[in-house]
């Protein structure tokens, strides 16, 4: 409104300019979107950096051998897992299936044949001997991975993870120590066997096993690992019931598995995060987590000393070297034989002593 007084026009003050409601909403959503983009970018960058860090580009390995070390000859197709009996005999799986790696694998791995070897620790200067598998066993479809043994007075039962061409299985064999041979008994398959890595026997027909992931196809498995999806699990298989049950539903690539000498604890390694998780076995075979041990290395298989209960871990120190090793088997990758010694009962200990042997010429 304007008022004219003489020759002067006076205009009243208009109210301050205000944004419309729609403009305010647009400003708010723009700011909110920018915040989300910033947070997402930071999280993605943090994840990428954590993956790069886990590959160990910043690490350097030095040879450390507290005792004599030699290469045991007689194994031409790699050695994946080992189980040592109470009398010092060791069963070693060889010829793991690496075809899921596709073109990333050394072509010589395509010619590997699945075998189980025997080594006697009481004769440390001797070499391995191959254990023939007798009975109606399909040797052409044998790609062994993890191994475990259940010892009884009358029979020694061997459980071996087998990546068969069309399905996962666990082969059950009987060891004849006098004849140095294995007798095929039967195969176990289960819908819960998706990507079986390792097995530990807890009875003559029962065991735990790890699925180290969900996908077996190369690209899907790469995404699963890169994005660190916890799609692995631990299964208990009851031979009497003839079925498995999930006892650890989520895990980041659970790998090696073993048990304490008294059967109270189950140990599971996770190389992707560098930990060993200690579980207490319940009466119904469920597993209760009680301790996570951070190792600053990538643990693979677990050996438990039957007398002392000490853990010995085969570890991959530098991740990217292990990846390059799969592409060219002649290129060594830094490895460790690593032992965290528990100083107190497992549920209460707070400190760990570390014993280790590491080298650049072996793949533990």
Automatic annotation (TrEMBL):
Known catalytic reactions: a phenyl acetate + H2O = a phenol + acetate + H(+)
Q: How does the cofactor bind to this protein, according to its record?
A: Binds 2 calcium ions per subunit.
One Pfam family, please name it: Arylesterase
- TM spans (from-to): 35-55
Please list the residues that bind Ca(2+): 80-81, 147, 197-198, 255, 300-301
List, from the UniProt record, the residues annotated as the active site of this protein: 145 (proton acceptor)
Q: Which UniProt keywords apply?
A: Calcium, Disulfide bond, Glycoprotein, Hydrolase, Membrane, Metal-binding, Transmembrane, Transmembrane helix
> What superkingdom does the record give?
Eukaryota
Gene3D superfamilies tied to this protein: TolB, C-terminal domain
Tell me the cofactors it needs: Ca(2+)
Q: Name one GO molecular function term.
A: metal ion binding
Question: Does Phosphoprotein show up as a keyword for this record?
Answer: no
Provide the E.C. number(s) assigned to this enzyme. Answer: 3.1.1.2
Of which family is this protein a member? Belongs to the paraoxonase family.
What name goes with this protein?
Paraoxonase
Source species: Patiria miniata
């Amino acid at each position: 409104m304007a008022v004219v007084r003489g020759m002067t026009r006076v205009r009243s003050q208009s109210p301050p300019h205000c944004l419309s409601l729609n403009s305010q909403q647009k400003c708010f959503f723009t700011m909110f979107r920018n915040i989300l983009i910033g947070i997402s970018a930071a999280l993605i960058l943090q994840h990428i950096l954590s993956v790069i860090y886990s590959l160990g580009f910043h690490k350097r390995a030095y040879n450390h051998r507290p005792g004599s070390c030699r290469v045991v000859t007689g194994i031409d197709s790699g050695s994946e897992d080992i189980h040592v009996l109470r009398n010092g005999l060791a069963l070693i799986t060889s010829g793991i299936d690496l075809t899921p790696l596709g073109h990333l694998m050394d072509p010589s791995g395509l010619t590997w044949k699945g075998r189980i070897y025997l080594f006697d620790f009481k004769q440390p200067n001797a070499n391995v001997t191959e254990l023939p598998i007798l009975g109606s066993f399909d040797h052409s479809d044998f790609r062994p991975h993890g191994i475990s043994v259940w010892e009884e007075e009358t029979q020694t039962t061997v459980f071996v993870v087998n990546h068969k061409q069309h399905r996962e299985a666990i082969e059950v064999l009987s060891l004849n120590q006098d004849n140095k041979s294995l007798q095929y008994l039967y195969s176990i398959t289960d819908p819960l066997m998706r990507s079986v890595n390792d097995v530990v026997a807890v009875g003559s027909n029962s065991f735990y096993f790890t699925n180290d992931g969900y996908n077996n196809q190369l690209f899907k498995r790469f995404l699963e690992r890169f994005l660190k999806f916890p799609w692995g699990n631990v299964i208990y298989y009851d031979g009497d019931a003839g079925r498995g049950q999930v006892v650890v539903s989520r895990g980041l690539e659970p790998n090696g598995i073993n048990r304490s000498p008294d059967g109270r604890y189950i140990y599971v390694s996770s190389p992707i995060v560098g930990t060993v998780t200690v579980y207490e076995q319940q009466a119904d075979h469920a597993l209760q987590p009680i301790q996570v041990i951070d190792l600053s290395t990538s643990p693979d298989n677990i050996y438990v000393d039957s007398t002392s209960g000490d853990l010995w871990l085969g570890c991959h120190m530098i991740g990217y070297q292990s990846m390059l090793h799969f592409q060219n088997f002649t290129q060594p990758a830094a490895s460790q034989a690593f032992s965290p010694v528990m100083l107190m009962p497992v549920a209460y200990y707070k400190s760990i002593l570390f014993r280790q042997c590491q080298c650049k010429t072996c793949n533990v």
